[in-house]
Predict the 3D structure of the following.
Amino acid sequence: MPVHGVGGDTTVARPASTHVAALDGLRGAAVVGVIVFHLASLQHAQGPLSGGWLGVDVFFTLSGYLITSPLLAELGQCGRLDLVGFWRRRVRRLQPAALVAITVIVVTAVWWSPGGTADSVRGQALTAITGLANWHQLWAHRPYAATVTLR
């Protein structure tokens, strides 16, 4: 695999990854918890899942571990990181599903949401496609926690 960056182009064998299915299942359960939280907030419901933050914390903690582990293994085995290759693989794996989801959300917003919402959603879609949504919210002084109503 070509290595791009400081060391020039050379061939480096990427370390074999070990897949732990249980972590995928736990991460999936965390996503379900976040979805239930958002569905409950749409109905202004209160209850044991009204916080939703545990699912977010679990998802991001596991994702960080699952993303970082192969990078650390590559660094340990090869003595360097192929960050360009890493980002290419991530984009190839995540972007197709993200584009489908973003398209469905924009189309739904255009067809069924109240006036003005569609324009906002289209702007948010552009930042989501580029991976800059969190930065956009930060620059607009709208942190993620402020986007949901806590009771």
Confidence is low (pLDDT under 50) at residues 1-9. The two ends are 51 Å apart (CA to CA).
